Amino acid sequence: MEDNRKTILVVSAHAADFVWRAAGAIALYVERGYKVRILCLSYGERGESERLWKIPGMTVEKVKEDRHAESTRAAEILGAEVRFFDMSDYPIVPTEEKIVEMVNEFRLNKPEIVLTHSFEDPYNPDHPLACELTLKTRVYAQAAGYPAQGKGGQDNAPPVFCFEPHQPEQCNFKPQLLLDITPVWEKKLAAMQSMAAQEHLVAYYTDLGKRRGVQAVRNSGRRQIKFAEAYQRIYPQVTDTLS
Ligand SMILES: [Zn+2]
Fold first, then answer.
1. pLDDT digits (tens, 9 = 90+) for 56-107
2. Ligand 1 centre and the CA of 182: distance in Å?
3. How far is the CA of 35 from the centre of ligand 1 (A)?
4. At 102, which helix (H) or strand (E)?
5. Is the pLDDT of residue 159 over 90?
6. Are 107 and 141 in contact (CB under 8 A)?
């Protein structure tokens, strides 16, 4: 059967980034009938798997296996699809072949919305690289002559939203959009709790969700909002209404 759902692409540098920073948006849009496709560029085997490396006899392959299983489970909880590119981490190494594969994702899925990391992150060079790769492959997908699957063309120019980095002030991240994720908070919490390799982050991102929720109420008067996620745009919003 043909899949006619609208698509969102989420480009995550490491195995868990999409969970902490965008699980609310993912769950919300899945509930609205979208296909949400997560592209995990790496497993975060070197830089974001602290707890696993404390286990005696741990190997890179075992860390990757565990992180693959964790991310797959988190994506299932959220109702999303996940694809792993295994580009290594610290640093992420984007070969020409993997870049073409990312362009294929844009060409074949024609996403309506794209989510990824912020432009800057002095704590983690893989995050800005993931942002750069997302913008590059989005543009290559539009180029008529770029040799990938499907057809190029500027009819697919989806907005790109950066999700909130761990220390936003150092990354020049300014929330321009506060997304109400109250209806799907329990799903985000369950997805976060499934990431055992970084369990120390659950409380931190629960607090952040509440804080952004308070700010969402302050900026809208909508008192029913309890949890929110912050996003920053890269391209201008196109609209015929000032709102
Ligand atoms: Zn990361």
1. 999 999 999 999 999 999 999 999 999 999 999 999 999 999 999 999 999 9
2. 24
3. 23
4. helix 96-109
5. yes
6. yes
14 Cα to the center of ligand 1, angstroms: 5
Q: Is 49 helix (H, G, I), strand (E, B) or coil?
A: coil
Strands 228-233 and 113-116: unpaired
Please write the tens of the pLDDT for every residue from 110-134: 999 999 999 999 999 999 999 999 9
Tell if the pTM clears 0.85, that is, is over it.
Answer: yes
* Residues having C-beta closer than 5 Å to ion ligand 1: 13-14, 17
Q: How far is the CA of 117 from the centre of ligand 1 (A)?
A: 9
Long-range contacts at 127-134 (CB < 8 A, ≥ 24 apart): 127/13, 127/17, 127/165, 129/13, 129/91, 129/92, 129/94, 130/11, 130/12, 130/13, 130/17, 130/41, 130/92, 131/11, 131/162, 133/11, 133/41, 133/92, 133/94, 133/99, 133/102, 134/11, 134/102, 134/160
